[in-house]
């Protein structure tokens, strides 16, 4: 039984990580609507979707690249991870002004 739990633990933790973002979004929407109004939530949704889409595009291929790079250069995993973080972080800072200056609103 302990062996099965040891094998299931990483799987369940990973599943929890993947489910946490959608769950947090649902809880955030419920909380904003309860504390404020649907109008406030409507004004917040469009920039949130745009920012989420930018982050999604910036993360394309990230996991697959790192898995392959770690397999080839397992002794340099820390360096590869930091290089990837810095390069993706630079793209995030390039995309950030687009999010802030886009002038998005619920009215379109």
Write a compact overview of the structure shown:
The chain has helices at 2-35, 38-58, 62-72, 77-101. It has 108 residues and is mainly α.
- What is the β-strand count? 0
Report the sheet-strand fraction.
under 5%
Series of H and E elements: HHHH
Number of helices: 4
Number of domains: 2
Task: Indicate the overall shape.
Answer: flat
**Measured on Cα atoms, how large is the radius of gyration?**
19 Å
Question: What's the main sheet like?
Answer: none
Report the uncertain regions.
none
Q: What portion of residues is helical?
A: over 70%
- What is the overall pLDDT average? 82
C-alpha termini separation = 56 Å
Q: What structural class is derived from the secondary structure elements? A: mainly alpha
Protein model, in words:
This protein is 84% helix and 0% strand. It has helices spanning 2-35, 38-58, 62-72, 77-101. The chain is flat.
